[in-house]
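We were asked to recover a plausible sequence for a given structure. The inputs and outputs are reproduced exactly as logged, with field labels preserved.

PROBLEM: sequence recovery
POSITIONS: 276
GIVEN STRUCTURE:
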């Protein structure tokens, strides 16, 4: 346990706020495991969203990363982090703000980050999915990601076709990344414990990503919006969906959870071709 960190939290009365999804990791063995899974390379910039009291941040600062940039919405922790980690000087950059609204590319330019930034975070549950989707759409400022989600979301990100968890988030993720469930983290590892289990997902960038995420968002919203229906029924809003399905070599009687990501990429491409 990091007793220094615990003492600092108690001394400054830094209690967890439910509204900001605050569940803290104060066990440095566990944060060390997360940092190892992330595979930080020497000289990289690491971006952490929601550092909170800084248990994970501490491990990131002990890694070979050149700089660690953290974005925290709660002003109480911004002040605490600046004070607690002041011995690390310029290697730690603490930004107060909402990660959903942050322009990461400008931020990284401002702090002269070299190469793509690696994203490592124990994400607040209430904004984990929108942040992932935002980062999937990101430009080349974004490197690989190692992110903690509630277990159910982690399963959706990493599911295979045919599994109950397979859905829109799986397909959007597969357009850009290879995702794997790297570690389950029990509720009691957090202070205070959340109601649900958590898991760490490692996401490496594809060498040949599917570029048109907007088209993919559109077709998967239609397909998975009515997941019990056959695609020829749920995709009617796309226009001549039987022709689009034929072009993408998808069986019109299939249900969306059986269709692999690559077939959805072909469908999005076919729809875009007609929609343009
Ligand atoms: N990383 C810390 C840890 O592992 O102990 C804290 C994780 S806690 C699950 C989530 C953190 O994200 C909290 O510190 C919370 O204040 C912060 N947060 C919540 N919403 C945010 C947002 N939109 N932008 C930036 N930080 C946010």
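RECOVERED SEQUENCE:
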């Amino acid at each position: 346990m990091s007793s220094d960190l615990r003492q600092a939290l108690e001394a400054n009365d830094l209690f967890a706020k439910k509204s900001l999804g605050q569940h803290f990791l104060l066990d440095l063995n566990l944060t060390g495991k997360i940092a190892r899974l992330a595979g930080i390379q020497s000289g990289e910039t690491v971006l952490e969203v929601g550092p909170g009291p800084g248990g994970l941040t501490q491990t990131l600062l002990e890694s070979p990363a050149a700089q660690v940039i953290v974005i925290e919405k709660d002003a109480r922790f911004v002040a605490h982090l600046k004070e607690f980690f002041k011995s690390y000087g310029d290697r730690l950059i603490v930004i107060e703000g909402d990660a959903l609204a942050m322009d990461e590319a400008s931020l990284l330019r401002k702090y002269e980050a070299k190469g793509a930034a690696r994203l490592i975070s124990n994400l607040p549950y209430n904004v984990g999915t929108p942040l992932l989707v935002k980062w999937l759409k990101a430009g080349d400022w974004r490197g690989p990601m190692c992110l903690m989600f509630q277990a159910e979301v982690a399963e959706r990100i990493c599911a295979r076709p045919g599994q109950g968890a397979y859905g829109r988030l799986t397909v959007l993720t597969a357009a850009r990344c290879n995702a794997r469930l790297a570690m389950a983290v029990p509720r009691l590892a957090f202070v205070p414990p959340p109601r649900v289990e958590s898991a760490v997902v490692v996401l490496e960038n594809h060498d040949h990503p599917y570029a048109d995420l907007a088209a993919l968002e559109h077709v998967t919203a239609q397909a998975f919006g009515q997941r019990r229906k056959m695609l020829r029924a749920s995709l009617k809003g796309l226009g001549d969906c039987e022709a689009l399905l034929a072009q993408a070599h998808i069986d019109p009687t299939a249900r969306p959870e059986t269709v692999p990501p690559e077939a959805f990429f072909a469908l999005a491409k076919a729809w875009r071709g007609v929609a343009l």
